[in-house]
Amino acid sequence: MRRGNHSSQEKIFNVINYFVFIVYTLICVFPFYYLFINTISSNELTGLGLITFYPKGIHFSNYVQVLKIKGLPNAALVSLARTVIGTLLTVLASAFLGYLFTKKEMWGRKVWYRFVIVTMYFNAGILPWFITMMNLGLTNNFLAYILPYIVQPFNIILIKTYIEAMPNSLQESAQLDGAGYLVIFFKIILPLITPILATVAVFSAVNQWNSFTDTLFLMTDSKYYTLQFVLYRYLNEATALASIIKSSQGPINVNLQNMQTPTSVRMTVSMIVVAPILLVYPYFQRYFVKGIMIGAVKG
Q1: What is the pTM (predicted TM-score) of this model?
Q2: Which of 25, 93, 127, 165 has its CA 20 to 30 A from that of 42?
Q3: Which pLDDT tens digit goes with each residue over 215-230?
């Protein structure tokens, strides 16, 4: 009797649990779905707010036309370059520093570790940051997207904790065989910390891809504009942009005149900016929980 009651209670709980998570998933997914169906629907209906649950007057010319807007392809390349290069360097630097901070024989290990961690709690502010970047020659310089993000204290903490949870015998046996610190790091540590590296890569890639304030403050040359910054400008100037398109002449611009509206510009550019992260993130998701939870339980 008890088993039957227990089994029925479990079934009720599972049904409620699945229902709650399905609803929550739909709530999370719907904004992206809504954005997408509005980019492929009739621009006239989209502008009137008549597209809600399914597309009407399906076409894909918005994407072709928006990509012809001046500066957008170059901004996409800049964003892609800063995301790939910045993520690779951040992951490598965080992994190496996290590994070094696990070594008790490292000179001044505790001092350097605290020096890195304290930067998580104190921020000088935008003006000192801007003056520093300007004095370092990082205005209108692509390196401004890379150098300040290489050392990330939170990522170092994650990797350090992950490495400390690994058996010390792995490194000790390698040292007995004559392996140095670099050999141990590249041939033993790196292959074994793939989950936490994937987690750090997700954090870094999302941060790099979504960042636009550094462009806003540091870049005046349009060739260094990022996709997010272009989106920021287009969201604020979509009406003016649509008016320029309508008043333009030429075979390409006539097509834009017939198709583009302020709403279509906003939504299409937004979708172009969001899509890469939506495609990449699920691939790293399988490492995410394992990477975050490692080291949480001791013993």
Answers
A1: 0.73
A2: 25
A3: 888 888 888 888 888 8
